[in-house]
Amino acid sequence: MLKQTFLEQYKILFRPVSFDPNIINEIINLKVYDRAISLLKDPKIIVDLGAHIGIFSIYILTKFPEARVYAYEPEEENFNLLTLNVNLNNLQSKILTRQLAVSDYSGIQYLKLNLDHCGNHVLIDSLPISQTPGAYRPVAVLTLEDILILSGSEIDLLKMDIEGTEAKIITQETSCLNKVKTFVSELHGNLESLSKICSKYFKNVETKGDILTAWKENTFQNIEIKEQENISGETNEKENSGTPEGTK
User: Fold this and answer.
1) Are the beta carbons of 78 and 52 closer than 8 angstroms?
2) Is the distance from CB of 123 to CB of 101 less than 8 angstroms?
3) Which end of the chain is more exposed for a tag (fewer CB within 10 A), N or C?
4) Are 202 and 175 in contact (CB under 8 A)?
5) Residue 28 lies in a domain
6) Cross-strand bridge partners of residue 147
7) How many CA atoms lie within 13 A of 100 on its CB side?
8) Which is more confidently placed, 26 or 167?
9) For the chain, what is the domain count?
10) Is residue 56 predicted with pLDDT exceeding 90?
11) pLDDT digits (tens, 9 = 90+) for 15-51
12) Which residue(s) pair with 185 in the sheet?
């Protein structure tokens, strides 16, 4: 069963009995990515790696409606809900969705599913000899370089939340980061390695909590970061009279 909440003019469908409300709370109420957002000036291209159900992709459009977002999400159920949220808001021309993961090579890998946390699936190279039925799914993977090539010649913001794979793909040889103006990532325990590598490609690197933000310019674009309703725990969603609770 799905519930609906609003993010300004946009509707968002989510799974209330899941980790979805926590992720909504992190992005909208705790504003974990707003430091990176404040650095942007009229962004044209944004890449969302680990797009989940589309919360960040839609959130960034409330700040920069002229931007185009390339949203990558490998897990099937998350991707289907991401696509549903994009279509629900007629954002097909603004958010381009791809059911892909990012890794250190292009091909096929496996997603180890976390049945208790829909935002914490882990990418692995090969299947274990002994495995729980239904706990692993094959997924297409691309390198970061390939993804950035597909997304545009210059990336205004690269957002990454890929459950610990960051250090595997952000290496000393990740020269494709030269085309990225601003980078923001959850660290998942990779603070030292990511900070060191990002300092090679970005003029400024800072961390706060589990978020690393890196950027090339010193200029800041002050934008209005509007307060949103609390969407954690017992979600305070606005019910749309035309969309009953429990929409499927």
Assistant:
1) yes
2) yes
3) C
4) no
5) yes
6) none
7) 22
8) 26
9) 1
10) yes
11) 998 889 999 999 999 999 999 999 999 999 999 999 9
12) 160, 212
pLDDT tier for residue 120 given thresholds of 50, 70 and 90:
low
| Residue 113 placed within a domain | no
Q: What is the pLDDT of residues 63-99, one digit of tens each?
A: 999 999 999 999 999 999 999 999 999 999 999 999 9
For residues 99 and 166, which has the higher predicted lDDT (pLDDT)?
Answer: 99
Cα 110 from Cα 54, distance rounded (Å): 22
Average pLDDT of every residue of the chain: 83
Taking the mean position of all CA atoms in its chain, how far away is CA 25?
A: 14
Six-digit token pair at 19? 């980790």
Beta strands 180-186 and 155-160: pairing type? parallel
Cα angle at 215 between 170 and 51, to 5 degrees? 60
49: containing domain = 3-100+144-215
**Cβ(134)–Cβ(158) under 8 Å?**
no
CATH at 155: 3.40.50.150
Determine, yes or no, domain membership for 233.
no
CA quadruple 115, 184, 234, 72: dihedral, nearest 10: -50
